[in-house]
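pls ignore typos typing on phone
2'-deoxyguanosine-5'-triphosphate + seq
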Amino acid sequence: MPNANKQLAALFEQMAAVLEILSGDRFRINAFQRAARVIDDLPDDLASIGPDVKEIAKIEGIGKGTAQRIAQFLDTGKIKEHADLLAKLPKGLPALLDISGLGPKTIALLWKQAGIESLDDLKAKLRTDELAQLPGLGTKKLENLRKSIKFAQTSGQRVRLGQALPLALWLVDQLRQIQGVKHAAYAGSLRRGKETIGDIDLIVAMQPNPKHPDKAAQAVSDAFVKLEPVTDVLVKGPTKTSVRIAGDKHAIQVDLRVVTPDSFGAALLYFTGSKEHNVALRQLAIDQGARLNEYSLQKNDRPIASRTEQDVYKKLGLTYIPPTLREDRGEITLAQKDQLPTLIELPDIKAELHAHTDASDGRWSIRDLALTAAERGFHTIAVTDHSRSQAIANGLSNNRLEQHVQAIRSVADELKQTITVLAGSEVDILADGSLDYPNALLKELDLVVASPHSGLSQEPAKATKRLVKAIHNPYVTIVGHPTGRLINRRQGMSPDMKQVIAAAAERGIALEINANNWRLDLNDVNARAAIDAGVMLAIDTDAHGPGDFDQLIYGILTAQRAGATKDNVVNAMPRTALVKWLKATRPA
Ligand code: DGT
Ligand code: CA
Ligand code: CA
Ligand code: ZN
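k done
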């Protein structure tokens, strides 16, 4: 049973809410809520203990009654009491609990006094203001409720890293300009560089005003809710404020926490997560006779570290763990042994090996592409326009490719003191795994990025064969965006990555992390598997025009999450080593 804790915590949470709607016993409601919290924070999966009431009851914070219910769930996959409680409500009513701003008490009111039994009922009643008659509702609250319902229906989706990061950087910059703010930072999954973000978490450290302790924090939240892109204020308190920023295509929630400079490090650590990493750190603290929370690391009830994350890790006997590794995937053990990898960083990238020009679907000339790459400090740029089958992208016919290579060589010659310009192609991997140009033509190029663009809904077995066959073409240097997925838009292929990676290892070629924030393909997990198999990565932006090199950061964050060092990445090689590596991938 995967992740029994999460399911169990949700069940207890729901039992508490349903009981509250039914105006049940306060004592039982509290007990269910407490059980949900304890289970949610457990470091180990309850499924690993098994349905043994005695063993489960040994866990701190879990009483016998809760243990019996947990055992029943582990044994049967259900808690009978949960089903019994749900049976007492109209079928459509529990769904209302998912709407932010709607708690059990209000739901009970809507049900008993307005006859609302489902989301559809509620939406119908919200077309007028008649519900404003109910105690505690009012027109303002109804308006918020309409917005929340709309949000619940349009948001479902997590936003892409590339949507959230620029917004967060702007927000942090605004917060830093507020008087009295000492530090401002983004935390959460965004700081960990995840490919999609549920909400943005911001932390601000504000010097408290000794005479008016609450006023300083209040000033931050007042300024925050007035920021131009904020469309709704969900929560506004002295230490926590939540707002919504709704654009045309997406809506995102932003949580802001205000802390004192003293506890900034502990708060940043806590709200960066991941939750799993936090749980493991807390356990480590307990093992050392200490306690860790969002305010500090304490021993004998006295804080011993809190100002910076570095202090907290150090006092726990760990080297500093970069946010991108904080997923409880073994990083804590490595930090204990001082064996964390030195992760690749943006300035380590010295070459771009996948870029387009106006010969296919790019928006700049060979020369402008090369000069932009040089400005970024790259020693090498590869020109890789689309191949002949990519008709929509103005892919090059055999003849046009030959002319294009000549044009590239002439720019290369002109700019040879400035940057090395390589002649390549992004060659389609056709559905059967053959390439879109004959080998005689591929041989004339300095490198070949082979990518799948169509037939992406192929069955996994076919997709695997297709990629493995392409990799065995002797002229392929890099497999570009290996699955072809587009985040939140298209799933792409699901090949057996083990086989694809094994083939790449055998051939000594690289697999791409396409840095475009729609792609991030390879993803973090597959990139990790590639590294483990000794396969080199290419972190490429797939640039089509000015500004596209800025996508590189998303590829770097993904590579960091995979634990990549600069030794794992071909674009981080010095010029001579890169040229040597390129030559080594192809027949002499
Ligand atoms: P997201 O927003 O879904 O992409 O993911 P996160 O990781 O940003 O999660 P979020 O926004 O719910 O919370 C931010 C961080 O706060 C999370 O990574 C860890 C910490 N945190 C939140 N709730 C809990 C909790 O119940 N227990 C623990 N240990 N940490 C929590
Ligand atoms: Ca978050
Ligand atoms: Ca959050
Ligand atoms: Zn491309």
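The mean pLDDT is 93. The pocket of calcium ion (ligand 2) is lined by residues 188-189, 198-199, 201 (CB under 6 Å). more later
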